[in-house]
Amino acid sequence: MLIRLEIRDFAVISNIVFEPGKGLNVISGETGAGKSLIVDAIELILGAKASRNLIRTGSPSAFAEAVFDIADINDKEFAKILEDNGIEDNDGMLIISRTVYDSGKSVARVNGTGVTNAILKEISSRLVDIHGQHDTQAIFDESTHVKLLDRFAGDKCVNLHDRYVRCLKDFKDLVLRIKEISSSPDYLERRKDYLEFAVSEIENAAFKDGEEEELYDTKKKLSQNEALFESLINAQSYLSSDDSGANPVQSLNLASRELLKASQNDESLKEIAEHARTLSLDLEALQSDVDKVLSDRNFDEGMKERIEQRIGLLYDLKAKYGATIADINRFASESRIELDAIEKNKDILQELKKQRSVKEKELLKIAEDLSSERKSYAKKLEKAITKELSDLEMPDAVFEVNFVRREKARFFSASGIDDIAFRFSANPGQDVRPLSAIVSGGEASRIMLAVKNVLSGVDLIPTLIFDEIDTGVSGKASLAIANKLKAIAKGHQVLCVTHTAQIAAASDRGFVLTKKVEKGNTETVCTLLDPVAKISEVSRLLSGSDSDASIKLASDLIRSFEE
Question: I need a surface site. Which of 222, 274, 331, 389 has the fewest CB within 10 A?
Fold first, then answer.
């Protein structure tokens, strides 16, 4: 979860530190105080587009840094992403920073390691999920609905869809090859040249299953050993000679002998001579130990470069022939079979048509299985979201997942053989309609919260951020939203920017942003509310005043969430 956020020279923010805790963290404040700037800074850290407009007037750069506690994250893919990019776990902490310069360029670092924006997004997407006005609009986009359904369904649908996508690619490749052979007399010759080159390239590389993991493991160990080896070499060098070229071991031996001679004529020097002798023996032993360690290590300075080259070669082959070593080798195997067929002058076109027919049946079977599985989970999703909407003061709402089988001419799409879209009705007697037909901002916000709340139960993402989820709602609906956020916060860290008293009252930790002007400069301050200040802030949101009646109402409202 997010435990610390520091923002410097960011719009009207000079320097603030925001330290949320577990549960529900609520950010409030006057309009224009910069509440949403905290979300903007987090979005920047998550990989949002950088702009020089973010930089505070008069400053050369804007800076945002987030510290995440990842000790409890049990996500193997997340761990692999960090490992693949050479990012080490810093005692269970992950520090992500982003600096935006007045040139418009930005630099991102994760635990001190520079990363690209693509890697930053890949890492941060496992840590934080932001839901704001943009996300509410995204739910209106029907192309996202099948992805949301698959997220709810979990691994079974995700794995089926992955199989479907791979099978669809194979099917389209066969269709394309049949078309090329039919339209190009010299296609087979060109195809033969390509396959021979591909097989040769893959065979020469000779990658084995599991080698990719071994390469990255070796690379990591070499990086660690390189620093160790350098230290040992330096130690050996210091023991062997000083700047003048003298050997300290030999020098100490000579000094010891001279002191021994001197002690024979002067008994008072005997203790010094023995001390020198002991030091001489210890230094000889130390030099021997260091030499032995270096001999045993046998560090190969060229190994790291060879590993890097092999990783680069694998990256090139994956770009050409498959996502994994198994895929690459399978491509080579299938290419040999095809080459053999070409060499034997078989009727390639007829063979490919047979393969297309087999692949089409396989594709259809996977597509039907995927469709059936999705329909099963769609019923569960409908039930879950309808219940959420009822909790959010929409007791008569109807939520449906609509399936329309695609026409044969456009049967196989990237997502499957069905067009899937959410449908909604708010009131009895109304037909269910596309979500895009919703005109009420309050309805849109509550539908988005219902969908996100249901999905949060199956997500591994530890921190959820809601930016003004209460837009367009008031009264009982605001209270329902506050209760729903409180429920989500039992299993996730929740950050919420609000202008609603009910949500502020429900907070486990409340923060208020205030704006002040000093010497002509606007400054934003973030303050953690103590219990008394929290009552005052809820009172302000309720009535805009701190009258006795408003303070009592605020106290009662806060107490209702603590019972």
Answer: 274
Give me the amino acid identity at 235. Answer: A
**Does the pLDDT at position 438 exceed 80?**
no
Residues in the chain: 563
* Residue 511 pLDDT: 94
C-alpha triplet 312, 80, 457: angle, nearest 5°: 140
95 domain-assigned: yes
Q: For residue 97, is it within any domain?
A: yes
Q: Which two tokens stand for residue 100?
A: 């935006």
Which pair of structure tokens corresponds to residue 510?
Answer: 């409340």
d(CA 146, CA 143): 7
Q: How far apart are CA 254 and CA 251, in angstroms?
A: 5
pLDDT in tens, 117-158: 888 888 888 888 887 655 555 567 788 888 889 888 888 898
Task: Look at the chain and report how many structural domains it folds into.
Answer: 1
* Residue 14 belongs to some domain of the structure: yes
pLDDT digits (tens, 9 = 90+) for 327-370: 999 999 999 988 887 777 557 778 888 999 999 999 999 999 99
Q: Is residue 184 assigned to a domain?
A: no
Q: What is the mean pLDDT of residues 388-400?
A: 87
- Separation CA 504–CA 511 (nearest Å): 9
Please, are residues 527 and 17 in contact by the beta-carbon 8 Å criterion?
no
Residue-wise pLDDT for 40-61, tens only, equals 899 999 888 888 888 988 899 9
> For residue 93, what are the domain limits?
1-127+461-529
Report strand pairing: 93-101 vs 106-110: antiparallel
- What span, in angstroms and rounded, lies between the C-alpha atoms of 295 and 432? 77
CA distance 60 to 102: 6
d(CA 68, CA 332) in angstroms, rounded, equals 44
pLDDT tens digits, one per residue of 276-318: 778 878 777 777 776 676 665 555 667 778 888 889 999 999 9
Beta strands in 128-266 (DSSP E): 128-131
Q: Which tokens in the block code for residue 370?
A: 């995927």
> CB of 76 within 8 A of CB of 22?
no
Q: How far apart are CA 350 and CA 512, in angstroms?
A: 72
d(CA 387, CA 398): 10
Could you tell me whether strands 398-405 and 128-131 are parallel, antiparallel, or unpaired per DSSP bridges?
A: unpaired
Number of CB atoms found within 10 A of residue 313's CB = 14
Supply the CATH number for residue 502's domain: 3.40.50.300
